[in-house]
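in:
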């Protein structure tokens, strides 16, 4: 039986945010959430990237929703443009075509069932490569995003209280090892990633009519900070559903629903820093 709450934790590729256990509600299932999602234009399906249970939930929900488009945090638009039904039928070639082995994302085997669950859906990419993220540190996120930066709110400062909380989250996520002067830039890069995903969602909906599913880290799916904030600003007519996924009830953020899974047995991401102390 799945557990629900209204907050969720997320693990980025290189680190994990600590959460706090919160109450959950018994009786909710993937099937019940799938029925609820049918009334929405955009469905964000958050994940902890290396949790197989989260990917299985995504597969089941994509299979039920049968979206016309899927936006992948893991793919650039160039990569997404190569995905076809014929290629999906050949997992080895698909993995090679996407150069998954050198991408830094977890095992392709966890993601492939989601590809299989989307017959006929068009893929869109919402990934910000590390090279472009590094360039954004120098140019600023307004220049990195382009002409629509103002429309997406990237020319504005965050509220002071939110900025403080987000900088503290970035520090914890990076094992308290970041120079403090880097924290504003790290927050900005996260904002840039969210805006890029939102722009891909808007493009996908405009071209296919939706519904659009988004496969992304739970941190990007959160309604208080993530992609939904930018969608509400630029395309308020879209009805957006945000699913977060937690591990053993540890949750951070705001969502419409949260599905819980067992925690993955993983190495301590901060061990390397502890060894040097």
């Amino acid at each position: 039986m799945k557990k629900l709450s209204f907050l969720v934790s997320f693990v980025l590729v290189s680190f994990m945010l600590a959460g706090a256990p919160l109450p959950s509600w018994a009786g909710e299932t993937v099937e019940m959430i799938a029925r609820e999602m049918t009334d929405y234009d955009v469905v964000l399906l958050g994940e902890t990237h290396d949790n197989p249970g989260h990917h299985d939930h995504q597969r089941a929900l994509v299979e039920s929703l049968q979206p016309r488009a899927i936006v992948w945090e893991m793919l650039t638009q160039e990569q997404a443009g190569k995905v076809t039904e014929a290629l999906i039928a050949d997992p080895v070639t698909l993995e090679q075509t996407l150069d998954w082995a050198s991408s830094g994302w977890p095992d392709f085997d966890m993601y492939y069932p989601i590809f299989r669950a989307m017959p006929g859906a068009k893929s869109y990419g919402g990934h910000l490569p590390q090279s472009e993220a590094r360039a954004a540190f120098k140019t600023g996120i307004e220049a990195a995003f382009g002409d629509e930066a103002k429309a997406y709110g990237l020319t504005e400062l965050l509220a002071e209280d939110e900025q403080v909380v987000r900088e503290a989250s970035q520090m914890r996520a990076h094992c308290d090892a970041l120079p403090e002067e880097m924290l504003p830039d790290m927050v900005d890069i996260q904002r840039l990633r969210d805006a890029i995903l939102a722009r891909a969602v808007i493009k996908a909906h405009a071209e296919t009519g939706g519904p659009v599913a988004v496969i992304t880290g739970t941190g990007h799916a959160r309604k208080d900070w993530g992609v939904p904030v930018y969608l509400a600003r630029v395309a308020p007519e879209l009805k957006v559903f945000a699913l977060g996924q937690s591990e053993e009830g540890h949750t951070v953020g705001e969502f419409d629903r949260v599905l819980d899974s067992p925690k993955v047995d993983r190495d301590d991401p901060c061990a390397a820093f502890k060894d040097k102390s």
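note: The longest helix spans residues 183-208.
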